[in-house]
Amino acid sequence: MRGNGSRRIRAVAWIVAGALVGSGCEEEPPASTTGDGDARVDGEAEVEGAADADADGGPDEGATADVDAEPDLVEDADTDGPAETDADGTDAADVPPPCAPLPGDYTPREAGSSTDTWPPCISDDNTYHPIETTIGTIARIASFEQIADLLWRRADAPSPDDFTAARVIYVEPNGLDSRIQRREDLHYPPVPAGEGTCTDPGVPERYPDRCVGPARILPIVNDAFAQGTAGVDPRVQAARLEAAFLWFLYVSPYKEAHTCTETPRDCDSAWAYYTGGEPREGGLGLSRYVREREVETHDRVWDGLLAVRCWKNLDHETGVSTDLALRDRAIAQMDRALLRGVARIVRDRLDVLAAATTDEARRVAWAFLQILGGVLDREATARDPATAAVLRTELARPDPAAVDVPATREALDALFPCP
């Protein structure tokens, strides 16, 4: 698609990028007082954090596995990125530009490569240094990987027994289910004082955006497991679970980074929810998805996670932090990159939809897109309501065959440029 309309949308990408550089961090909601922190004992049993019976403190929940390998779907190499317009008005090659750090971003000082203005800190060797010796979240990401192997990361359709086995993993004590049931999305305002919490009856229904785990993610997970166990559209149900778990993995680092303000081990959880405990060069769960689609964006997420750890190192590492401006700067850097990562996953699945040759393949891709694509709507609307409306309209179509894939790709590229 090369008309004037596509040039206008592409131009938005650079306007948005410039706005992000100029505006700095957006104001963040107040941090929650609980985290996902639980420690693993002897590498096996986990115990909830002492500060809270529902300890949402230390290492946090599940990560996601790799994109499913479906026999009738062909995933193209994701090189169809946003094109630039050269000074003479011609379009450059349709390849995404390198995703370099923005001015003001934290970058590690390894080998003297950093040009940021952050003070020296523990993250400068380009390594995440855990605050605690054990991180329970890593086990949840391992569970996600096991579920992926059983349900969507396979060539054949999963059987009812596969769904049953996957659900046993999902409901393990202190596992994914326990965290999804209470996950809050701190991008939204907190539940008003006096109205209870997201774990209280009736509260999730009144505040579904904030209480995203019990109100929005859990119903998808429970329904997909129920239908899959009954043998109904197993590939579709697997794709729904995949997207719902990825949604959970996206919101979890943001939440854990905030609660790290009072609960230091939650910084470990934020890191582990994305990485699965792996170094920058590897990655499990969500980091595997992002890294396989765009290494530069994966690196920017890592820089953001190191920024969070740097802030905590500089600001009362073992206690309650007080420099909320630096905290919010680090979290904004991390979240901007995570959003780009989610957008690349959605864009990649759009290519799968376009290449699908059977009705089932289209329905599988569409089930995934309608869940994870919707996660981007909040930020898309804040950045550019008109372009966000294009994305929302396409993702709401009842028939996946009617989706304008090129227009949806261009909207994604304009809304979520390199972080």
Question: How many helical stretches?
Answer: 15
Cα-to-Cα separation, first versus last residue:
24 Å
Q: What is the H/E string?
A: HEEHHHHHHHHHHHHHH
Count of individual domains: 1
Please give the share of residues in helix.
40-55%
Which runs of at least 5 residues are low in confidence (pLDDT < 50)? Answer: 1-34, 38-94
**Oligomeric state of the chains in view:** single chain
- Going across the major beta sheet, what is the strand order? 1-2
Largest sheet: 2 strands, antiparallel
Radius of gyration: 21 Å
Report the portion of residues in β strands. under 5%
Mean pLDDT: 83
Number of strands: 2
Structural class computed from helices and strand pairing: mainly alpha
Shape: globular
Account of the 3D structure:
- The protein has 419 residues and is mainly alpha-helical.
- It has one domain (4-20, 40-82, 93-415).
- 52% of the residues lie in helices and 2% in strands.
- It has 15 helices and two strands.
- It has helices spanning 4-23, 137-151, 160-170, 176-180, 203-206, 212-229, 234-259, 265-275, 286-293, 295-314, 324-355, 359-375, 377-383, 385-395, 405-415, and strands at residues 38-41, 45-48.
- The chain has a two-stranded antiparallel ribbon.
- Helix 7 packs antiparallel against helix 8 (265-275) and helix 9 (286-293) crosses helix 10 (295-314).
- The protein starts with a helix and ends with a helix.
- 54% of the residues are buried.
- Mean pLDDT is 83; it is low at 1-34 and 38-94.
